[in-house]
Amino acid sequence: MPKNPKLKSILIIGSGPIVIGQACEFDYSGTQALRSLREDGIETVLINSNPATIMTDPSMADHVYLLPLTTKSLVQILKEHPQIDAVLPTMGGQTALNLCIEADEKGIWKDFGVDIIGVDIDAINITEDREKFRELMLKIGVPMAPQATATSYLKGKEIAQEFGFPLIIRASFTLGGAGASFVYKEEDFDELLTRGLEISPIHEVMIDKALIGWKEYELELLRDANDNVVIICSIENMDPIGIHTGDSITVAPAMTLSDKTFQKMRDMAIHMMRSIGDFAGGCNVQFAVSPDEKEDIIAIEINPRVSRSSALASKATGYPIAKIAAKLALGYHLDELNNQITKSTSALFEPTLDYVIVKIPRWNFDKFEGSDRTLGLQMKSVGEVMGIGRSFQEALHKAAQSLEIKRNGLGADGKENKDYNQIIEKLTYASWDRVFIIYDAIEMGIPLSRIHEITKIDMWFLKQYEELHMLKNEISTFTIDTIQKDLLLEAKQKGYGDRQIAHMLGCLESQVYNKREELGVNRVYKLVDTCAAEFEAKTPYYYSTFESDTETTDGKRAAYNDSIVTDKKKVIVLGSGPNRIGQGIEFDYCCVHGVLAAAECGYETIMINCNPETVSTDFDTADKLYFEPVFWEHIYDIIKHEKPEGVIVQLGGQTALKLAEKLTKYGVKILGTSFESLDLAEDRGLFSKLLKENEIPYPEFDIATTADEASAIADRLDFPILVRPSYVLGGQGMKIVINKEELEKHVVDLLSRMPGNQLLLDHYLDGAIEAEADAICDGEDVYIIGIMEHIEPCGVHSGDSNSLLPPFNLGDLVMQQIKDHTKKIALALNTVGLINIQFAVKDDVVYIIEANPRASRTVPFIAKAYGEPYVNYATKVMLGNKKVKDFNFKPQLEGYAIKKPVFSFDKFHNVNKKLGPEMKSTGESILFIDDLKDDEFYNLYSRRRMYLNK
Q: Which of 609, 868, 799 is nearest to 57 (CA)?
């Protein structure tokens, strides 16, 4: 059946600011859905309060409302757009679903004659109400763990007494496992039960008998109105039950499941989906499987919406789940829709993978002082990476290289943990670095049987690790001159980086690279094609691997490469890697706009990124997508293969910027601001000299490399002093110290964590107002796109400050200084593209805190507030296609826009919530106000000093 002809205008609810448990995977799914609906001529209306995302770009929907996600906002939109026929709430995570349910309970959809599509409210209620869900599963014959519901403390105690320990407590109607916990001992139960009851909006928890050591799996399903169902992907958690799936290392397709059990699981998932309601759309089902020969299956939960795993499954298979789910919500059937990859098979054709993907989460525990770093049922990661390889080992290594935590892979990089007691502890209490710790344990000689006994990780995975360890030992018996081609090829096929092989052979990375070239051990690129090459794929979505040579018809020997290089002029955009605090979705927004602008200028666009949650890694964003680590070795091989005109580094945050020096050294052209200018802005000594020459004030400062030097500098500078390392993002390691004792402690701590780093010591301008400006410069002219004033005082990181656009109480004299300094600095740094400058204002004098000649966190916010595509303009300037004077700037904003940070402190108990120079927020929302009499502004302004942590 084609689409429902009654549906002409649809409201989509977004997921709001990014928090732990609900990140940019919903920006990706929402963006796909909007594109999908518009292809069918549907009028789209979007509500989302997140300014940093592509989803809220004016080009994405016919009407974009950057409003708080409340029923009041929904009523406002429905009054303005009485033509809205239906609401699609499944693309915005739990936030969108909860808002949809609240509006339904208040009768809002009924009042305005709006249908709910893509899901059934009853289905949501059944899956969220754990008691109802359990009853339904037992009725349809799907086994579940022994469990019971408690709506009071007393009832919870009774259940615990009946089941015995260990237990699992899960709070109803929460996100990212909030309020969920594993309870091993009776003495911990009271506190964890109380916490679960408090966090649940309906004050209800489900208490399960813990299935220690059982394996966890997920299936991603799609169903149409004709009851056709496809299983898009099976995902296996390397970690057994007890760790939230968002914090688990996951593998697709499932590796350790027998075919018989997989078929049984498929049937069970389809039966579950059909039983919860009659709706067309996506569904995610989680199962536990016993670790013995019986492979008993029990259901854990079902989510009748696009989930975190849907983004991963989409990128793993190339099958655009959200795009197809949106079409199904319109009434299409799967057999009427094209497979987007092959263009010749239908969407009813289930993907088959001839490669392996591994997802590793990315944590930011360093930002949450005093937090519990062990992993459990409550999600704590802030982002994730995905590696694609021909084997589990290759994909695992590529994912580890993508994390950007100064590791070159699993081991063989001199950073192994060699403390036996610490290794055993980290294996016993799952730690964020266990992906490395397993390797270290094997290196130390701890038997696999012991590691399995402690971690309950399947022996198949542990044997894969052991093989890597044995290969490393074999390679270590050779030198760069004696290693044979077959051994070098095996190391590369198992994902070892050149840096790791150099470590094993005791030589330089460049020598390994040259040896590979000499022996013909080169990367080839393969298509992500959804159909194991059974049908020809039309989508340019690639990953790299290493293959043995085969003889071609003309007698030459070579490994087959799917990536055909065209003769068009090309540009590569480097992505921003995994989300983390300090570098989030806003840089993906910039990358996507950079790609689109380069395409408008006639370039073939090539994207390199490894983040499965984002729009930049959608297969139809750039002309070519390389889903690869933003890691030197991988990038250089792509550049050599594609031979682009140049590389754009200033849109991908610190991830891309850090590669600028090496690109320049290897003769690769950087488009836009040069490495020399980027480095000059980072080198505080050189930058201050530039400011002095231009008669621009800056706080007194000096540079230290030891605690003694820092102490001597403190005598000259006077306290309070702001201490910060060079080349970091999100204020990492920054602190305001007020005496010698604090200074010494912080300096010693920083130098132990970042050996060889230069530390900058600035006299902190106490009581100053902070402001920042973003501008576009072409080397001759400068256009300031926005000046923002922070509500919090100087000393709170700009990413954690509530900020107003335009400024609300800076006088003409101060504003003129900001404009003059911005223009002077942009030109003095030879900026070509974007620049962000931060200021401290004290006694009507404007001091420069820092300048970053790149895209900043605030650029998407300013673009949304003023309704102008600034990244598009800046990219055209970087490419030399346009000059600043070629653009007709017409910013439009009545009143003010406030950038409001959002924190995820509730995921970490007993954590220090005070704010300071190190960024801690995970996301942001935008709020428009008419004037400064607004209650929201008044409230923020009155509390501005409350959390300052000196």
A: 868
